[in-house]
Amino acid sequence: MVSRAQISRRGFALGTVAALAATGPALAQAGGPVKVGVIFPLSGGAGPQGQHVTQAIQVMAALINAKGGVLGRQIEIVSRDDESTPAIGVSRANELISAGVSVIIEGWNSPVTLAMQPVINRAGILDITAISKADPILSGEGNPLAIRLNSSNSQDGAVIADYVAKVAKAKRIAFLTENDAYGNGAQASIEAELKKLGYAYEKVAEEKFPFTQADFRVALTSVRAANPEVTIAINANEGLGMPALIRQAKQSRLPGKLVAAVGTIAPSVISVAGDAADGLIGADIYFPNVEPFASNPANKEFVAKTQEMFKYEPDKFMALGAGALQAWAMAVNEVKSLDKEPVAKRIRGGSFKNTIFGEMDFEPNGQLKSRHYLFTVKGQKLVVDTKPN
Amino acid sequence: MPTPLRLLLIAGVAVAGLFLPALAGGSPAIYSAAVLIAIFAVMSYGLDTIVSDLGEVSLAHTVFFGIGAYVTALLSVRLDLGPIATLLGTIVAALIAAGVLGLITLRLREFVFSLVTYAVAVVAITVASSWSFIGGSDGLRGIPPFELPLIGFTAKDDAALWPVAYVLLLATLYLMHAFRRSRLGHAAIMVHLNPRLATMSGIAPQRTRLQIFLLSAPITAAAGWLYAYQRAFVSADVLETYFLILMLTAVVLVGRRRLLAPLIGVIIIQVQEKFFPFGGYVDKIILGSILILVLAYLPNGLAGLIAPLVAAGRRAVARKAAPSPSNTEA
Fold this sequence. Notes:
The complex is a heterodimer of chains A (389) and B (330).
Chain A: H1 4-22, E1 34-40, H2 47-66, E2 75-81, H3 86-98, E3 103-106, H4 110-122, E4 126-129, E5 147-148, H5 153-168, E6 172-178, H6 181-196, E7 202-209, H7 217-225, E8 230-234, H8 241-251, E9 257-260, H9 267-273, E10 281-284, H10 297-310, H11 316-335, H12 340-347, E11 351-355, E12 358-361, E13 373-378, E14 381-384
Parallel strand pairs in A: 1-2, 1-3, 3-4, 4-5, 6-7, 6-8, 8-9
Antiparallel strand pairs in A: 10-13, 11-12, 13-14
Helix pairs in contact in A: 2-10, 2-11, 3-4, 5-6, 8-9, 11-12
Chain B: H1 3-18, H2 20-23, H3 28-54, H4 61-78, H5 83-104, H6 110-130, E1 140-141, E2 146-148, E3 153-155, H7 158-181, H8 183-193, H9 195-200, H10 205-231, E4 233-234, H11 241-253, H12 261-275, H13 280-297, H14 301-321, H15 325-329
Antiparallel strand pairs in B: 1-4, 2-3
Helix pairs in contact in B: 3-7, 3-10, 3-11, 3-12, 4-5, 4-10, 5-10, 7-10, 8-10, 11-12
């Protein structure tokens, strides 16, 4: 180690060299803790959510450590902030690789995940994507052994298409869609799944709006005039746009059912939308206190520990982060190795029992098979149809 | 200092620089930081010609950086071309873009110039994130490693890519040095400081401005070229303000029209960000505050702060070394 005095004496260039040297690799010693790298946005717009996911992973680490850890060693979480910026994410991934982590759990924004994948892959470290949704994450170009927990756009599209065709049996469908990669992709996947079902329907209205829009009255007037049986709202702006859209749809007396795209109805959306949310239909993959999760011992333990450590109830994103660590720890203990390849091969195409999601099944391409549950909002509460879709 | 000795010294320092990452520990993080410092320094030198020599603030240089990255990604992924061909493609594309932008902004000065270049950057990021031909918001993936089969060279990691990044940096430094001593370099400064005098001296200010643009853009684009290989993935984020703030700060931090200033600026920013981070918010506040302080109080950058101290030190040494006036008179 070089002291500050030495740095100042030898000048800037040498000081830089010394500083770089001081932060060289610090590989975990055998018997010491197993380092698990975690990269999410901890600052900026997505900062609060990223912090929650990181905390959920810490909760899961505490639960696993209490039961003996992995391979008899304790898990140590090493967390970094990707600042929702791909270039920073890559730097943080390199830092964690040098710190000797055995796995990196990452991914709130798809571009950040896609940028980090080749770097983590080249370093021979296992990379598990918790949230980022873009389809190319599993294409194998950035990481041939990719693993992703959050549902894909096509899985989400299928569950909404299934509701439209088999439950609502609606023929007149309207779309209110956020005009960007996410919104257009989500609508395209719903339409593709309807086509796959061979379901004949008429698209009676289609209104597009920017992410920041909060006034939908003009768009809703056109949609109402088209008299749809189902209106599908695709709006990822959970803080402002989605609650406003729900309230204005109610005020404009929109006919038929209002259906929200998968994963866009957080409890906060319902509390902001108030009574107007009643009758809203949506779907998601995790609810902490609803069956079948409510009676699942692994989930109960996770919810209780989160309440104890951080004083709040976990949401879907937190469950996905914790689930990533849980599946990895189970795979490591089974294959008795921390190496990327055997662990990745155990997870991809494999299944795990007694997790917070109940049984977790992964497809051969690394995608977690999601079980979507339809819900209806009644009295500002989610009433979940416990039969998975 | 005699010229051959000076040349020998420069050559020695240049060769020694190649081994700096190895001396600093040689870990993957060190090599990764070194490669990125070299790439971002080259990126900043392109902007340096506009800011320091032409006296304008271009906010569109992320576009040239993005052009380098996107052209490289498209040519290597879709047409399977190697690094030499992608570099040529990058330079041609950057020259075309610079020619168009240079002609549009030929008569614009100061804040109008900056506003127009900013608008170009906004249009570019919108096009890049929504045009599916260049990957849209998912970007372009599967860029192959940097490979030169003729000499059997493949760079699968940053340690192997470092010599390439270092050579690119040295080439850029030489180009900047040569440019500032050239007629074009002198013409740029005259156009910057006294356009009327420049015109009276037979220099066409608008032609000079266009030439500077045509020099500047390929330099920044070449950085984008190597960045595409380093990251193996290109998306619209290469056009984001992160890179703009990085190059602007690097250019003004140490001092303008000093050969090594942008490089030292990038080293300071990157070493802090990579090895001594204080978290997203604090890092941004530090970077922003430094930019404000330098622009408001240190027009000559950190060098402006240090130069008087160095001069005072030299005077003190000279006073000690020189005999007292009474003795010399005697």
